[in-house]
Write a structure and sequence with these properties.
Blueprint: H1 2-22
């Protein structure tokens, strides 16, 4: 119980210190702080476009232009007659026998060994 009241007093002191800092009035400290002068009022900026200069148009020289020939209509492609498929059996091509390099053991497993290659540094 004694410990809780000590912590409560510490909290109260810290809280009052924060309140005192928040309500502090700096004018009583004797500083001669002058408020900054207000900024001068600038006249409103408006855009004035430049005066239009009217000039006579320059004479236009004739220009040689390319005129492509008239398009030619494409001729229709010849249509091949449609051939109906026939149901005929084509036997598979004969397969050449493949030579077995490694015989599978009787138990059905292949046992492989991992070979580690060690390179030695020569000085």
């Amino acid at each position: 119980m004694l410990k809780h009241s000590f912590i409560l007093k510490k909290f109260l002191v810290v809280a009052l210190a924060f309140v005192a800092c928040a309500y502090a009035d700096v004018s009583e400290l004797g500083y001669n702080y002058q408020q900054p002068a207000p900024a001068p009022v600038q006249p409103e900026k408006t855009y004035i476009p430049p005066a239009q200069v009217v000039s006579e148009p320059a004479p236009v020289a004739p220009v040689n232009t390319y005129i492509p020939p008239a398009p030619v209509a494409p001729e229709p492609a010849p249509v091949a007659p449609v051939v109906q498929p026939t149901n005929t059996y084509i036997p598979p091509a004969p397969v050449a026998p493949v030579e077995e390099i490694e015989q599978t053991p009787v138990d059905g497993y292949r046992y492989k060994t991992v070979r580690h290659v060690v390179y030695r540094h020569r000085a």
